[in-house]
Amino acid sequence: MAIDLKFYPEADDLYRAIPQIKEQLQLNIELAAPSDFIPELPDWQNRCEFITREGSVSFYNYDPYSQALSKIERGHDQDVADVTSMFRDGLLTHEKLLSLFNEIKPHLYKYPAIDPKTFSDAVDQVVRSEIDH
User: Fold this and answer.
1) 3-class DSSP state for residue 22?
2) Cα–Cα distance measured from residue 75 to residue 23, given in angstroms and rounded to the nearest whole number
3) pLDDT tens profile 19-51
4) Bridge partners, residue 57, by sequence
């Protein structure tokens, strides 16, 4: 099993605990978030879903729109399947996904690995495919 983590705000104690947690739980832990791969979406913090609180630490699922756009940009078959599931589970709407994508488009130049046209075409294709279902 693998999990991706982003600490907000950053906390040295949590970083120092990762090796022990990885060993005890036999997890692959990556320090990664969608904003490491695509521009940060406006208001992403308010779309994170609360999971639980343990002591002074709260756990959230990362903003589903950030996850979806990051997966669409990466473009693996499993990523596209994940986004399809997110639509079917009611976590995403076509309008909001397109609106947020259009808001980050002007900032794609900061991510040289991303081809804006290819990314835009992929977003359009996923949305069209979902509308057709």
Assistant:
1) helix
2) 31
3) 998 898 888 888 889 999 999 999 999 999 999
4) 54
